[in-house]
Structure formats: structure tokens, C-alpha cells
């Protein structure tokens, strides 16, 4: 029980941190300091972690890694939009 609580709290902190970063990029319409490869790597790693977490039946990590995968997709979309709108292409 305590182990799951630690996992869920950590997952919540990570989800809030990633969500805030993507939201900030969306709001400012800026790509400053963000690499295109960040989201590509995040997509690949998160997909692997979702599969692994599911195989070992660790539901805390299935949920958090699915959310992280979702933020990678949104982050990549926002990044590409910001690049398209940037006058410094």
C-alpha cells in the first residue's frame, strides 16, 4: 500500500511537471530551448515503458507512462506548430 502511494505521488508530480512544460510552450508559441528530438525520444521511451509496465503488471507505471506518452504527442504537435509559426524558420 505505501509503495503504491509513493508511486502515485511521484507519477502525479511528473505528470504535472511535463504538462506545465507543454502548456507553457503552447501558450508562448515558442520553441526556445526545446529540441525536436526530446519528444521523439520521449515517444519511443514511453511506448517501451508502457509495454514493459503492462507486461510486469505494474499499473501505476502503465497509467503514468501512458500519460507521458500522451504529453509527448501533444508536445511534438505544439513544437511543430510553433516552428511553423516562427518567423525565423
From TrEMBL:
Subcellular compartments: Membrane
Main location: membrane
Keywords: Membrane, Transmembrane, Transmembrane helix
UniProt membrane topology term: Multi-pass membrane protein
One Pfam family here: PQ-loop
TM region positions: 6-23, 35-55, 61-80
Gene3D superfamilies, sorted: 1.20.1280.290
Top-level taxon in the UniProt lineage: Bacteria
Listed name of the protein: SemiSWEET family transporter
Organism this protein belongs to: Keguizhuia sedimenti
Amino acid at each position: 500500500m505505501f509503495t503504491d502511494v509513493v508511486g502515485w505521488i511521484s507519477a502525479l508530480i511528473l505528470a504535472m511537471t511535463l504538462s506545465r512544460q507543454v502548456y507553457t510552450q503552447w501558450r508562448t508559441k515558442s520553441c526556445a530551448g526545446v529540441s525536436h528530438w526530446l519528444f521523439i525520444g520521449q515517444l519511443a521511451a514511453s511506448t517501451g515503458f508502457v509495454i514493459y509496465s503492462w507486461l510486469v503488471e505494474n499499473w501505476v507505471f502503465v497509467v503514468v507512462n501512458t500519460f507521458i506518452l500522451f504529453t509527448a504527442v501533444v508536445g511534438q504537435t505544439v513544437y511543430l506548430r510553433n516552428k511553423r509559426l516562427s518567423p525565423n524558420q
